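Session log. Operator J.P. requested a structure for one protein chain; no other inputs attached. Running the standard single-chain path with token output.
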Amino acid sequence: MTYAFIRTKKEIKNLLTFITILLLITSVWGILQFFNGYLSFEMAYVMANDAVHLVYINGRWRSFGTMISPAQYGIVVAYLMVLVFILASRKMSFFLKMIYLGAGFAALFAMVYSGTRSAYVVVPLALITLVILGKNLKLYFIGAGFGVLFLVLIVTPSNNYQIQRIQSAFNGEHDESYMVRKRNQEMIRPWILAHPLGGGLGSTGVWGQKFSPGTFLAKFPPDSGYVRVAVELGWIGLIIYLIMIGKIMISGIFAYWKMTDPELKKIVLAILSMLAAISVVEYAQEVINKLPTNMLFWIFLGILFKSIQIEKAEQQTQLLTAEFGKVESK
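Structure written below.
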């Protein structure tokens, strides 16, 4: 629907600005939750859904903004932060640039206050993709500088809880939750190999407990998005799914390298950097098929390929104009 309804560059920019404003709202909401606590209806929701163990860890309440899970919230604000910071480098009015930068910095704090460790992996992954695709010497130096700072942050001992939380995201072998997920994946691997078509949609995790309670798959927590696909659709389904993700990235990258419109090129670069990070983090945590990413993912794909199509149309128009000018001159 996004691809069908967007027709011009202006509409693409308006949609991205709308998403940026939504990011600003949810990020500020998450920051207020961290400093002021949950509102009464938010606490009531947590209690009613027995979700205290998800939002209260190590004596600290986690921010979840306008979403229902701090895990999803942290990842969403992380990849959207990457998007808006890259988009903010475009030429735009001062007021609009302040909105983009404000949303980006607010998302940075919201990401930290969510306590979602997978979110901390999004930023370096997106930065690596940005540097590789950018083919710009300045970007290489900037990327190297950020890489050194990030490495220092990871290896330097600290008494700050938020920094310790970030460091734990890159020290999986010493993290109990990571080891539990690893053992679960090792346990389910023989079953996946023996069932090439999987156990069926909604057969595992929360949906499995609802539609097929008491079964082996319903009791298995997939955690990883790719593991869920492998369990529900089998290793054949997983291969098809990975081919789809790979096709999206490869098509987008080759189209990006051929683009000439600086504004559309920056938009495509931002979305590709974001999608690359999401695709990798999907292995550690289910992202693409959870709200709100299960909508945003496809919206951004629509924007991505519509931007590429508009760019191609502009190039064809310029080519035809040039050819027509040559004919006229003769």
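Operator note: The two ends are 45 Å apart (CA to CA).
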